[in-house]
Amino acid sequence: MEGWSTRELSELAGTSLRAVRHYHEIGLLPEPDRRANGYKQYGIRHLVRILRIKRLTELGFSLSRIATMIDDDDPTDALKSLDSELASTIERLQRARGELADILERSVPADVPTQLAPLPEADGLTKADHSLVVVKSRFLEPYGLDHYGDHLQEMRSDPCAADFDALPAKADLDTRLDLAERMAPHVRKLYGPQPELGPVGYAPPRQRQAMMTALRAALQEFYNPAQNDVMRRIDGIIRRSA
Fold first, then answer.
1. N or C end: fewer C-beta atoms under 10 angstroms in the chain?
2. pTM of model > 0.90
3. What does the pLDDT look like over 148-170, one tens digit per residue?
4. What are phi and psi of 4, to 5 degrees?
């Protein structure tokens, strides 16, 4: 039998020239003999090999895994392992679909857990607050997310929240002192004598130091100097009154 060229083989197998060349590069497909003119000459064994590779990739096997099992007469263990991985993937995708349905139904942001919804700016959350919530949600487990979500809604109910949002970066000292005094009682009611630890207290112990570091960076980045000064003064007021 004369055999096939690379293009003819790829057409017979229903794949691309690039795929055939890639299989050669990674060692999945043996190099064929060459004709007298130097062109490759593929045979039926090469076609069968490529068809097996295609079938295994369709089932979900990676090329690296195929390389370890393609010559195995009994791939049962590999099939069971893949089945387990696919089951986990399906479960994860089903959870993701459930969350997407919740996000679409409630028109809430996609970048934070649904336990913290509703969070759109129309409900009073500024872009700075939103960014801070994204950071906090990284460290809070489901229990903590539920409790932090409740506190977040209560925090936004403070009549002084709008004044804090609108505070200019160069607000004078008297304005900052007055706002801190007005906000301190509400913050103390929510978080107790250590307000800066409020959301951190909902994080797993192993995560708290990392969360504190990330929160400090977020406060500096997303809030202006006057707002950061007010938050420090609120902390001081509450500590002195404890």
1. N
2. no
3. 766 677 776 777 888 999 999 99
4. -125, 155
